[in-house]
Design brief:
mainly alpha; flat
C-alpha cells in the first residue's frame, strides 16, 4: 500500500493574503480596545470583567478564522460574518458606561474595530478572489485503489447554500451568548440575592440545552430537511423568550442592552439566513 505525495501548495491570491493580515490586525485590535474600555471604566466590577474576558476570547476566534482562510475552507465566510457582527456588539456594549459620557479612547477604538470588521466582511463577501479561494472542505485520510492520501474529504450530503451555513454558525453562538450573562448573574448570588438561585441555574441549564438542540437541528438543516428549518426557528424564538426576560430581571436594563442585544443580533441573522436560503436570490453568485 502506497502513500500519495502531498501536492505543492499554490501561492494564495493577494486578496486572500490581505484578508489574513486584516484578520490578524482585527484580533490584536480586539484585545487593545477591550483593555482600553476596562482601563477607563469608572467601575471595574465582576460583570465588566466577565464581559471583557469573553470579548477578548474573540481574538482567538479570529486566529481560528485565519486558519480556515489559509486552508480555503467554505465555512470561513459565515464564520467570519457572525464573528464580525458579534464582535462589534460585544465591544460596543462595553464602550458606553452605566452613566456619563463614554471615554474618547474607547470610542475611537470602537470606531477603528468596527471599520476593521466591516472590511473583513466586505473582503469575505465581495472579493471574487476570496470567494474563489474559499471552496475547500476539511482534509482527512482517504483510501482509494490501495493508496492512502491526506486530502479533501467531500461531504456525502448534497451541497448547501452559504446562507444555510451562515444560519448554522449564527445559531451556534446562542449557547455562549446565554452562558456569559448567566455567569454574570451568578455574581448577584454572592451578593446575597439568594432568590435568584433557581433562575440562574435555569439560565445555565437553558444555555447548555440550546447548544444540543442547535447541534441536532443544524445537522438536519444542512441536509435540506424542511422540518429542520422550522425546528431552528422555534429554537431561536424560544431562546429569545428565555434569554431576554432573564437579562431584564437579573441584570436590569443595562444587562438587557449589553447581553440581550448580541443574542438578538445573532437570532435575526439566523432567521434572515433561513429566509434567504428558502427564497434564493435569482443571482446566487452574489453570495
Amino acid at each position: 500500500m502506497r502513500t500519495a505525495a502531498e501536492p505543492v501548495e499554490v501561492r494564495r491570491p493577494s486578496a486572500v493574503r490581505a484578508l489574513t493580515t486584516l484578520l490578524a490586525v482585527t484580533a490584536a485590535a480586539t484585545v487593545v480596545v477591550e483593555l482600553l474600555n476596562y482601563w477607563y471604566a469608572p467601575e471595574q466590577e465582576f460583570g465588566l470583567a466577565v464581559r471583557t474576558g469573553w470579548a477578548m476570547l474573540r481574538s482567538l476566534a479570529f486566529l481560528v478564522l485565519i486558519g480556515h482562510v489559509k486552508r480555503g475552507r467554505v465555512a470561513a465566510r459565515p464564520f467570519g460574518l457572525i464573528l464580525a457582527v458579534t464582535t462589534v456588539f460585544a465591544v460596543g456594549r462595553l464602550v458606553v458606561p452605566r452613566s456619563g459620557v463614554p471615554p474618547l479612547p474607547g470610542l475611537l477604538g470602537f470606531g477603528v474595530l468596527t471599520a476593521l470588521c466591516v472590511a473583513v466582511v466586505v473582503l469575505l463577501y465581495r472579493s471574487d478572489a476570496v470567494r474563489g479561494h474559499l471552496v475547500r472542505h476539511r482534509k482527512g485520510l482517504v483510501i482509494s485503489d490501495g493508496v492512502i492520501s491526506w486530502r479533501e474529504v467531500t461531504p456525502k450530503r448534497p451541497p448547501v447554500t452559504g446562507w444555510l451555513l451562515t444560519a448554522r454558525v449564527a445559531a451556534f453562538t446562542y449557547s455562549p451568548l446565554m452562558l456569559v450573562p448567566a455567569l454574570i448573574a451568578a455574581g448577584s448570588i454572592l451578593d446575597g440575592r439568594l432568590s435568584a438561585v433557581p433562575a440562574v441555574l435555569g439560565w445555565f441549564a437553558a444555555g447548555i440545552l440550546v447548544s444540543y438542540l442547535v447541534l441536532f437541528g443544524t445537522a438536519f438543516l444542512l441536509r435540506e430537511r424542511a422540518w429542520a428549518r422550522r425546528f431552528l426557528i422555534v429554537i431561536t424564538l424560544g431562546t429569545l423568550a428565555v434569554h431576554l426576560p432573564l437579562c431584564w430581571w437579573l441584570l436590569g436594563l443595562d444587562g438587557l442592552v449589553r447581553d440581550g442585544a448580541p443574542l438578538l443580533a445573532a437570532a435575526l441573522l439566523t432567521l434572515y439566513s433561513l429566509h434567504r436560503a428558502a427564497h434564493p436570490h435569482p443571482h446566487p453568485t452574489a453570495h
